[in-house]
Model the fold of this input.
Amino acid sequence: MPLTRSGLEHLFGSDTRLKLLRIFLHNPSASFFVRELVRRLGTQIHAVRRELMNLEKFGLIHEAKTPPGNPTEEAVRGPESQRKYYQVDTKHLLYQELKALIVKSDLLTQEDLVHRLKAAGTVTMLILTGRFVGNPAGSTDMLVVGLVNKRTLQELVMQCEKEFGHEVNYTVLTPREFRYRKEVTDRFLYEILEGKKIVLLDTETKGAV
Done:
């Protein structure tokens, strides 16, 4: 069951196409090869190739002239046909409009994330930061405060990564750990609380973050 309930997969005609759009639109300066996309999406290679062809015909993505600065071992080792790199065309007429649509869809996915987290345990705070607010160099992307099953949370985050199209680094604190770090003015925690963030849930401080 996908995280998002936005219905955009129906608008775009394919769940695989929507996931590819998320990856390319969230990473406009990056290029990707086929098997890398297959691995990230957890989708069959034929479906990925078909949708890449559709997006290329549409003109939204194109073959990258040069591979990434540090191609993965898998990319270097694979056959030449699998080492074709794709990148989004930021000059495409609909690029900005599609990106805005994906961002709005992500907001719905984020709201649904709160409901899905209930399966992991009792969560008192959920904050999105880092990549979610345009800061990929941040110390973490998601702060979860509560008593949760770490394995269930890890599975949820893996699904989240597929939906958002990027890696999600997350931090889990128990309520006791959170309060202690807050009392001692822990630098890591205060960088999150005082920085740019999206607060999806907060019963820990009753909104006073």
Q: What stands out?
A: DSSP finds nine helices and seven strands in the chain. The longest strand covers residues 121-128. Residues 95-117 form the longest helix (23 residues). Residues 1-6, 70-76 have pLDDT under 50 and may be disordered.
